[in-house]
Design brief:
The chain is an alpha/beta fold. The chain has 6 helices and 7 strands. It has one domain (about 10-110, about 165-220): Vaccinia Virus protein VP39 (Rossmann fold, 3-Layer(aba) Sandwich), CATH 3.40.50. It has helices spanning about 30-40, 85-95, 110-120, 130-135, 150-160, 170-175, and strands at about 10, 25, 50-55, 70-75, 95-110, 185-190, 215-220. It has a 7-stranded mixed sheet, sandwiched between helices. The longest helix has 14 residues, at about 30-40. It is globular and about 50 Å long. The two termini are about 15 Å apart.
C-alpha cells in the first residue's frame, strides 16, 4: 500500500493507541470526554500532532459512508464481542471499506497460548494455570473490588465492564468467522509486519506484542 496517499484509516477499539493520521475510535467515555479533550487542548486543530478520536458503539452502524474507507484495523476487540455483534462488525467493515480495502484483525492466539501453558506446566511453573486464565480472560473472579463506590459501579455498568472475552480463536476458527463473500485474499502476519499495509502497520503496532496473537488480514471483495 502506498503510504504517500491520503488514506482513510480506522483504528477500531483503539484503547490508548492513538496514532496521528488515523481515526481512532473507542467506547470509553473516560477517554472520549477527558483524554481526547486534553489532547485537543495541547494540540489545537490544524496541528501536525492533532489526534482524531471518536466515540463508537459497535452494536450500532458506523458513521461512515459506504466504500469510503481504505483500512479497518482492530486489535484485541473482536474476541470481546458476542456472536451477533461480531457478524455486524464484519458487515460494517465490508460496507465502509472501498473495494480492495484492507481489514486487519488482531485477537489472542488460543493455540499458542495453550502451547505456552503446556510448556510452563512441563517446566514446573506453579502459576501456569493462572497465566492461562489471565490471557483467556473468561472468568470474573476478583476482577473488581466489591467495595468500590456507587459512582464507579455505575460507570463500570455503563461501559460494560469487566471487558471479558466472549470467545477465543485459533487460525481456522477465525477464518471460519469471516464471510468469504465479503472478504478474500486472507493471510496471517506477525506483530508489526503486514503483507498489505507495509510500514503503515507500525503506526499502530510499534511497541511490543500484548500476548501471543493472530494477525489476520484480508481484502474487501
Amino acid at each position: 500500500m502506498d503510504t504517500k496517499m491520503s488514506l482513510v484509516k480506522l483504528n477500531i477499539g483503539c484503547g490508548s493507541v492513538l496514532p496521528v493520521g488515523w481515526i481512532n475510535m473507542d467506547k470509553s467515555i473516560k477517554r472520549y470526554v477527558i483524554e481526547s479533550r486534553i489532547w485537543r487542548f495541547f494540540c489545537p486543530a490544524g496541528s501536525a500532532e492533532q489526534i482524531d478520536f471518536r466515540y463508537i458503539n459497535l452494536r450500532h452502524s458506523w458513521l461512515f459512508s459506504s466504500s469510503s474507507v481504505d483500512v479497518v484495523y482492530s486489535s484485541h476487540v473482536f474476541e470481546h464481542l458476542d456472536a451477533a455483534t461480531q457478524i455486524f462488525f464484519l458487515r460494517e467493515a465490508a460496507r465502509v471499506l472501498k473495494p480492495g480495502g484492507i481489514l486487519r484483525i488482531v485477537v489472542p492466539d488460543l493455540f499458542q497460548l495453550c502451547k505456552e501453558y503446556v510448556n510452563s506446566v512441563s517446566e514446573g511453573s506453579e502459576d501456569a494455570a493462572g497465566q492461562l486464565l489471565y490471557w483467556l480472560n473468561l472468568h470474573k473472579d476478583n476482577v473488581y473490588q466489591e467495595n468500590r463506590s456507587v459512582l464507579r459501579k455505575t460507570y463500570d455498568f455503563i461501559q460494560g465492564h469487566p471487558h471479558l472475552h466472549r470467545t477465543m480463536f485459533d487460525r481456522q476458527s477465525l477464518l471460519d468467522k469471516i464471510d468469504s463473500d465479503l472478504f478474500g485474499d486472507f493471510c496471517f502476519n506477525d506483530y508489526g509486519e503486514s503483507k498489505y499495509l507495509g510500514s503503515l502497520v507500525r503506526e499502530v503496532e510499534f511497541a511490543q506484542e500484548i500476548c501471543s496473537s493472530l494477525y489476520l488480514e484480508c481484502r474487501k471483495r
